[in-house]
Amino acid sequence: MALRTGTSSLTRELNIAQKCAVRQFATEARPKQRKTVHPPRRTYLHQQYESIVNNDRAMFIFQHNNLTVREFTALRQELSRLGAPAKLTVLRSGVFNSVLRSTKYANLEPLVEGGPTCIFHTNANDAEHPDLLKKAMAVLGKNKKMMLLGGKLDDTLLTHDDVNKIVQLPGLPQLQAELLGVLEAPGRKLLSTLDSPARQLHSILDRRIE
């Protein structure tokens, strides 16, 4: 009886020790998850790109082929002479694509993966600067090392051809004036038609009086 009791106690102690060992092994085998800490420069660029993508209404992506610092500086100076808030920013593709993936413009990501890229971006409105996009594309298009890939305007994604078509459109004030002329034309024609019998009657009465 004493032997059986001792055996049962030993079995229980072995089971408890085995469970503790398994629990300790599981705890030690599970690595601690560390929070990723990005370098300050990457964090700054991420915030900068995020602001550009979400806040600037026009953003056009270019591939630049071995453009020198002097050439970049010359392009930026020409853009500054346009008298509008417009910038040319060189991209770090990995950081920029991580920003795009978290926005509704994620389909632009393939445009940034092909080589060294930069973006022309502005938040100027058409009413104040109706010809800005056209003039800016003319400045950038003069340099053969700059190749337009596409971009976005407001919430619309654009291909290379879309950008070229849009920048050729007249400014908003001119479009409004043309639309107003189209809308007023039928009214002027109707007024002329209604006024014609009255003028004819007035002419007949004048002749009879004479």
TrEMBL record:
Question: Keyword annotations for this protein?
Answer: Ribonucleoprotein, Ribosomal protein
Q: Which Pfam families match?
A: Ribosomal_L10
Keyword Ribosomal protein part of the UniProt annotation: yes
Q: Note the coiled coil stretches, chain numbering.
A: none
Note the superkingdom of the native organism. Eukaryota
This entry carries the following GO cellular component terms, namely: ribonucleoprotein complex; ribosome
| Family annotation (InterPro entries) | Ribosomal_uL10 (IPR001790), Ribosomal_uL10-like_sf (IPR043141), Ribosomal_uL10_bac_type (IPR047865)
Q: Which family does the UniProt entry place this protein in?
A: Belongs to the universal ribosomal protein uL10 family.
The name this protein goes by in its record:
Uncharacterized protein
